[in-house]
Amino acid sequence: MLRFEVSVEDLLRSRFALSPALDLCLLLRSLVGQDPPLPRAWAARLLPAFERLRRETELNAVLALHTKHGGGPNFVAPPPRGLNQTWADDLAMIRATPLEAARHEIAVNATGPSGRDPRLRAVLDAPDAVSRIAEAMDRAWHELLAADWPQLRAICERDVVHRVGVIGEHGWAAAIESLHPGVTWRAGGIEIGFLRGGTVRLAGDGLLVIPSTIVGHIAAHMDDPWPRTLVYRARGTAALWGEQETVPRPDALTALVGRARARLLLALDAPASTSHLARGLAMAPGAVGDHLAILREAGLLVRARSGRSVLYRRTPLGEALVAGSGGEPRAQSSGPTATATAEDSG
């Protein structure tokens, strides 16, 4: 079991962040057959480009740094500063890694069969190893993840707004326990029964909490220079991959607030922007904005800014109305696309 000992000061210093580099590393691990597994359709779409990159770039040297048990060097996934973290930010930090620091991490991590391959050792031991690894990762980002990142990022931003709302209404304990069924808050600490690590004291530094659409369930990071970190699966990921979710029937709400507003309330199972709702429900953005304003005035919604987006979420009253309308299973659309964006102003 892993247990984080958490003080009041730790809670005050805990924060959310996004990590494009970490998600890229998770994606590469998935494509090479390690955890977490990717949905079949997405993997099939990416595998041809992935195999080509392995032939044309030094990507195999990057893959040699990742162990089967989820480990890997920190310099290829530097700790993010916040919710506005971009791939350009991460790439700049990767390229700025001192050679000696990189060599130390390479020696620790490149210990498997691929790490002993003479062709890959020539890259990993080269004086320009850092720049060659950074270049391979940059190619991988642009050819494997960049097109889908706006939609994946929007899902994570929506998730953060939801969690912040839970913290405001119910406290950190409820927010932490909502990350995964196996995570519990007990006696002033966070316990994860299926992870190893013993007891870890945050010592006033707080916890870094990172949503991801690629992580399998939940993961912890405890190696410097990272702060102590939890990475969890963002809400909305199941719908992204076409998994079955339970959604309420609109009939009862329709009679109360009208069909369009009922559809909007039901769609806000996770926070969303005006344009995201308009695309998902095939409604005009102006009409969506008007309906959202009326729902806000009725006390059913609130809005908050997350990075460049203004996201709406249901209030407790809105949640109660939706919960009372019943539910039925429905399959959502499959796979990420490049059409969604987090750059919404309302």
Description:
With 346 residues, the chain is of the alpha/beta class. The chain contains 16 helices and twelve strands. The protein has helices at residues 8-13, 20-31, 40-56, 59-63, 87-95, 99-109, 118-124, 129-145, 149-170, 172-177, 237-240, 251-257, 259-267, 274-281, 285-297, 316-323, and strands spanning 2-5, 15-16, 183-186, 189-192, 198-201, 208-212, 218-221, 229-233, 244-247, 301-306, 309-314, 328-331. The strands form four sheets. Strands 3-4-1-5 form a four-stranded mixed beta sheet. It has a four-stranded mixed beta sheet with strand order 2-6-8-7. A two-stranded antiparallel sheet has the order 9-12. A hairpin with a 2-residue loop joins β3 and β4 (189-192). The model is unreliable at 244-249, 327-335 and 337-346 (pLDDT under 50).
